[in-house]
Structure formats: structure tokens, C-alpha cells
Design brief:
Elements: E1 11-16, H1 24-36, E2 40-43, H2 48-51, H3 61-72, E3 76-80, H4 88-93, H5 120-137, E4 143-147, H6 162-176, H7 180-187, H8 214-242, E5 248-249, E6 251-252, H9 263-266, E7 274-276, H10 286-301, E8 305-309, H11 328-338, E9 341-346, H12 372-386, E10 394-395, E11 399-402, H13 405-411, H14 423-436, E12 441-444, E13 455-458, H15 466-477, E14 481-485, H16 507-510, E15 512-517, E16 525-527, E17 533-535, E18 539-543, E19 547-551, E20 561-568, E21 571-576, E22 579-580, H17 582-596, E23 608-614, E24 618-625, E25 631-634, E26 640-641, E27 646-647, E28 651-654, E29 659-665
Helix pairs in contact: 5-8, 6-8, 10-14, 11-12, 14-17
Length: about 675
């Protein structure tokens, strides 16, 4: 069944928590929402204690009035199941549902997500309240979408209690079968006398005196992601039974600080992929993070998606919570639209005066309407209304970057050759020069269909299974251009080293063999023969058919290849056995994509982000000036700048710090 969001245009809104305010404030909320152009709000996310004051006893009177008021004012509701914050009475009745950390401490309630994901009592209570909501509000004219839970795994991605241990063992038996020897082989338990003779002997990777088994830790991460996914699908199915036509979503957290869930497994279960994205105050180029996470979310969705939460200004949970500068709210929001968002929403509508997030910014700040944030919120509402026709269009790319949560988890386990390796840093170091050059990028699984791409990049793929490796190498053999980063193909899906030399699964396609790794110390650099330097990593590469592109000029491997190229089948495979400095890496990626025949979306001055969305009848060119200098960019004759409605001839002017969105005829 095709369940789509019925709200027209680019959706605009945020989390609405009217239960935090006297009822007389609600009328002002409606008036100001209309003024800002709000079209949908998320309701009821943290309202379990009010909706169910005691077990099985419900009070929907407040929510009835809220939904009625929204409908009267033409504002749709994204109605949430309130299961991210069970009430205190639940934990008094079921203290065994509290989560336990890896050190064995039972955590208390008093915040949110203070439950064990494997708790039967929690699952029963969550499905009960979700079912009550579904029964009452299925078909309600205000309800446009179901919002299941909130930010799964944000605070309780793992619980190490005995109930979780039992669930882990069930998951393992489903994965490996009843023969414990299969699991023992997969985990390599002959090492350190870890062989298991009874399933009851298997525990979560709790705190222990030395490094836990890496294969066990990897399976634990997989289990934890799947356990939370099972909670989502259980609630979703309850809602679908009552309202089969209403789409359901939950808000992902595709952003720098979160890696707990394998969203490739989650995305197919959502009717509409939605995401929360928050900037890191310490990131001097946060616009790159917005773009990368937007492209990754679009790739998970296979098209347009919904930005469920971001901030109008400062957040409240970083060491220093930086406010946004002039124009940044608008640039951030429209960058998300550029990268595929068909809706823009914030946490939250009205800034809280009490509670743990009282210092988190909102659409309506503590200062009220006499504030820059409010002015920016109203302006953005008008912008999104002007961009209504962009809805449904999507990005097109000739470059794919391989992204895999299993590889990320495995790379960042302890006891690596270098503890300095960070998956996201490695991927972003390759993504950033493509972003600066205006090159469109999709993200793909290792086993994805790659026929649409001229160039496939695997910046970091420490773990890859046989099918993924065969898919990537086969792509190059059949004429594609493949580039692989260091320490890739090294282990299989059980986290076992692929023997015979590195880079394991990719040796033949890359035409190289490494016999020893030489990670570099923090701050250590080595020279490269083509100019520039490299850091973080080096390895003794022995060409086995590949040509040397760049060699080390000093350090422990002077004269050894650092970058190679191998003609493989009818394609080519490049290997970057180190991390070049940013300028050198950018030049190298320029060379590789030129070989592959990949061009930028449009040439623009430095600091101007260029993104294209392709619609049924037109292309939409987003031009975002991050430089503060403004720019003049060439456009097609007959183009129109949508935010101003101006007809264009030959070019468009992007004022300093501003955004232009250009509709271009398809014949370009």
C-alpha cells in the first residue's frame, strides 16, 4: 500500500508541546503558527504520563482539544506514540524494566528512554498505549502521520541486564542456528579460552578486565539495533491495523554524534524516512555535515525525506552551545531541502520555561516575537511556501560513496592498529572535496546496484562481507572506476582477518599486496612524491599489477607506493594507502573523477554550495553562499528564481550569505 503524507508543499513546523503551557496560550500558538506558515506539528511525543495517569486508565481530553484546535486552524498533526518516556508509575510497578549499563549499574528513571529495550513489561505497556491512541484517533481529520516513539536508541541503545542477555541469546540462535560450534567458530572463541558449551554461558559484552571479543561486540551492536527495530515495527503494526492508510515514521539521527542503529535495515520499514540533525558547535564547516547527512538520509529514503528536528539556534547539550549567526537558520534549513528534504521541522515550537531542555532554542523563543529568530522563522515559512513545486523532486548523482554501519562499528572497536581511526572522519575527508567541487553524491550499501554510477568510492570499509566485496570489485571489472581507502577489506562479516595480506578482499582488484601496517603517530606526517604530505596511516604496499601514482618520500616507508592505480577488467581500481592532506586528496579525487568522466553540477565560486534536485518537468538548482561574499552563477535561459519570482537571463546573483533556488528548463 502506498502511504503518503497528505500535507501539500514543503511541510513546515516543529514539535508542539502544549501540555507544557496553560490552555489560554494555545490560541496564541495557533495565531502565530499561521503567521509563520506552519503546516504540520508533531504532538504528544512526551505525554505518556498525562495520557495514561495509571495503568490502563486513559485521559484523552487534553489531546482531543489540541487536535481539534489544530484542525480548525488548518494545521496537520504528526501524532506521536509517547513511548520514549514511560511514566514513573510504570517503573514503580516494573523496576526490572530499568536499564543496566555495562558496569552493572541499574539506571534510574527521571529523564527519558530509561527502559530496557528487551523488557517484556515495557513492550506490553508501549503497545497498549499505542493501541489506545490508534483506536481513538484513527481517521481523525487532523492526523496526517504517525510519529512512532522518538529518536530510538538516543539514550538506551544498549542494556546489559539479564533480560537483555536472554534476548541476545535468542537473537544469536536465530543467526547461527542451534549448533553452538557455529557460533564458536564465528566468534573465534578458541582465543583466550572463550569456547562456549552452553548457550546460557553467553553474556552481553559487559565490563571485563581486558578487551572483549571483537566478534561478540560486533554481534552485540547488530542485536541492539535489531532489538530497537523490533519495538518500532511492533508499534507501527498496531497503528497500521487501526489506520492502514496513514503513513508512519520515526525520527532517525543521521548526524555526527550518533552511530547506534543500522539505518540500512531500518529505512525499508518506514513509510517516510525522517531525520533529526543537530550541528556540532565546534565544527567550523558544519555546512558540510548538513550536506553529508542530508545526502545519506536521501539515500536511505531512496528519494525525498522529512527533517523532523533541527534547531533555530543553540542547543542545550554541548559543552558550549553556540547560537547561529545571521542568515544561518535560513541557510541550514534550505540546505536540507537542497539535499532532499520535503519538510522542515524544529525542536520545538515554543521554547520551554522549565525542564531539561529549557535552554534549547525554538521557533518561538523566550524573547517572543520581538526577536531575530522569530523574524527568521517567519521568513523561512514564506521561502518554503515559494518552493512548494520542489516537493517530490530528488537528487541525481554519478558518484556513490559506500557507507556501512557494520564497517563503522568494527573499525571503532578497541585494539585496532591505531586508535585514531574514526569512520565518519575518513568518509567526510573524501566527501568534503566533492562537496566543494559541486559534485553530487549518493551513499550506497556495499551490495547495492552500482550500474548508475561512473565512480564508486569506498573511503573506509574495514569490514566487508563476501557479497559486498564481489559487488564492488565486479563493478570495476565491468568498466567502473573504483577508489578504495586504506585498511579496507581487512576483515569479513565475523570480524575475522582475511589472510594472505592486506587489503584482504580487494587485493586482486587493486593489484597490490600489503604485508605490514605502519600507522602514524598523532601529529606525524610523511612526504609524498607528487607534493603534499600524508598522516594517520601508512603501509608497506607491494604492487602486484598496479602502477604507482604517488610514493612516500620519507618516514618509515620512503620510496614505497602510497597511491596506486590498477587496470582491472575494463575498469580501474585506485588504492589510497594513506590519508593525504586535504589539498592533495582533493587534487587526487579530481584526477580520479576526471578519469571517470564525472563533472560538477555547476561551476560556482569557492564557498558557494551547488545542489540540484530533479523534478518531473524541471531541475531545481540550489545555490547557498557560505563565503559571505556572494556570487554570480550561470543559469539556463528561461530560468526563474523561485524565492523572489524573478525571471533570469544567463545568470543569477546570490547575495552575500543568502540562498537562490532556480528552476531551470529540462532541456539544459
Amino acid at each position: 500500500m502506498n502511504r503518503t503524507l497528505s500535507v501539500p508543499g514543503i511541510v513546515y513546523g516543529g514539535d508542539y508541546n502544549p501540555e507544557q503551557w496553560p490552555e489560554e496560550v494555545w490560541a496564541e500558538d495557533m495565531r502565530l503558527m499561521r503567521e509563520a506558515g506552519v503546516t504540520m506539528v508533531s504532538v504528544g511525543i512526551f505525554s505518556w504520563a498525562l495520557l495514561e495517569p495509571s495503568e490502563g486508565a486513559y485521559d484523552f481530553s487534553r489531546l482531543d482539544r489540541i487536535l481539534g484546535l489544530l484542525h480548525e486552524n488548518g494545521i496537520a498533526a504528526d501524532l506521536a506514540t509517547p513511548t520514549a518516556a514511560p511514566p514513573a508509575w510504570f517503573f514503580r510497578a516494573h523496576p526490572e524494566s530499568l536499564p543496566v549499563d555495562r558496569d552493572g549499574r541499574t539506571l534510574s528513571y527521571g529523564s527519558r528512554q530509561t527502559f530496557c529495550p528487551s523488557s517484556p513489561a515495557y513492550r506490553t505497556a508501549a503497545l497498549r498505549v499505542a493501541g489506545a491512541l490508534a483506536e481513538r484517533y484513527a481517521g481523525h481529520p487532523a492526523v496526517a502521520m504517525w510519529h512512532v516513539h522518538n529518536e530510538y536508541g538516543c539514550h538506551n541503545a544498549a542494556c546489559y541486564c539479564d533480560t537483555s542477555a536472554q534476548a541476545f541469546r535468542r537473537w544469536l540462535r536465530a543467526r547461527y542456528g542451534d549448533d553452538l560450534a557455529v557460533l564458536n567458530h564465528a566468534w573465534g572463541t578458541t582465543f583466550w579460552s572463550q569456547w562456549y558449551y552452553d548457550w546460557a554461558e553467553i553474556l552481553p559484552p559487559r565490563a571485563t578486565g581486558a578487551v572483549p571479543n571483537p566478534s561478540q561486540q560486533l554481534d552485540w551492536r547488530r542485536f541492539c539495533s535489531d532489538e530497537l527495530l523490533s519495538l518500532y515495527t511492533a508499534e507501527r503494526d498496531v497503528l497500521r491495523a487501526a489506520a492502514p492508510d496513514t503513513p508512519a515514521t520515526t525520527n532517525f539521527m543521521v548526524m555526527e554524534s550518533f552511530d547506534a542503529l543500522d539505518y540500512w535495515r531500518w529505512a525499508p520499514e518506514l513509510d517516510l524516512v525522517s531525520n533529526d540533525h543537530y550541528l556540532q558547535s565546534a565544527d567550523p564547516e558544519s555546512e558540510i555535515d548538513i550536506a553529508l547527512c542530508g545526502d545519506l538520509t536521501r539515500s536511505l529514503a531512496g528519494g525525498p525525506w522529512l527533517l523532523m528536528e533541527h534547531s533555530t539556534g543553540a542547543v542545550n547539550w554541548q559543552p558550549v552551545n553556540r547560537a547561529k549567526g545571521p542568515g544561518e537558520l535560513r541557510r541550514n534549513a534550505l540546505a536540507h531541502v537542497a539535499h532532499g528534504a520535503d519538510g522542515i521541522a524544529y525542536f520545538q515550537w515554543r521554547a520551554a520555561k522549565a525542564g531539561a531542555e529549557q535552554w534549547h532554542s525554538a521557533m518561538l523563543p523566550h524573547a517572543g516575537t520581538d526577536s531575530r529568530i522569530w523574524q527568521d522563522v517567519v521568513r523561512l515559512g514564506a521561502d518554503l511556501k515559494a518552493l512548494a513545486e520542489v516537493r517530490g523532486s530528488t537528487g541525481t548523482a554519478e558518484v556513490a560513496i559506500v557507507w556501512d554501519w557494520n564497517a563503522r562499528w568494527a573499525l571503532e572497536l578497541p585494539s585496532q592498529p591505531s586508535g585514531e581511526l574514526r569512520y565518519l572522519d575518513l568518509v567526510r575527508s573524501w566527501y568534503a572535496p566533492l562537496w566543494r567541487a559541486g559534485v553530487a553524491v549518493d551513499f550506497v550499501r556495499p551490495d547495492a546496484d552500482l550500474r548508475a554510477y561512473r565512480l564508486v568510492l569506498a573511503p573506509s570499509l574495514y569490514l566487508v562481507d563476501d557479497a559486498g566485496a564481489a559487488n564492488l570489485t565486479g563493478y570495476a571489472e565491468r568498466g567502473g572506476t573504483l577508489a578504495v581507502g586504506f585498511h579496507s577489506g581487512t576483515v569479513d562479516d565475523n570480524c575475522h582477518v582475511r589472510l594472505g595480506g592486506y587489503p584482504g578482499a580487494f587485493r586482486e582488484a587493486l593489484g597490490v599486496r600489503t604485508d605490514e601496517l605502519f600507522p602514524l603517530l598523532p601529529g606525524e606526517t610523511v612526504g609524498l612524491s607528487g607534493g603534499g604530505t600524508a598522516s594517520l596511516w601508512s603501509e608497506r604496499v607491494r604492487p602486484a599489477g598496479a602502477e604507482t601514482v604517488t610514493s612516500y618520500t620519507d618516514g618509515p616507508l620512503s620510496g614505497v607506493p602510497a597511491v596506486t592505480r590498477h587496470a582491472y577488467g575494463t575498469g580501474s581500481a585506485w588504492y589510497l594507502a594513506t590519508r593525504p592532506d586535504p589539498d592533495t586528496l582533493a587534487a587526487l579525487l579530481d584526477r580520479i573523477r576526471a578519469e571517470a568522466g564525472v563533472a560538477p553540477v555547476r561551476t560556482a565560486p569557492p564557498g558557494v554550495e551547488v545542489v540540484r534536485r530533479r523534478g518531473a518537468d524541471a531541475d531545481y538548482l540550489f545555490l547557498i553562499d557560505h563565503s559571505g561574499k556572494g556570487a554570480e552563477v550561470t543559469v539556463a535561459d528561461g530560468a526563474v528564481e523561485l524565492l523572489t519570482g524573478k525571471d533570469l537571463t544567463a545568470s543569477v546573483t546570490v547575495p552575500p550569505g543568502e540562498v537562490a533556488v532556480v528552476r531551470e528548463p529540462r532541456d539544459r
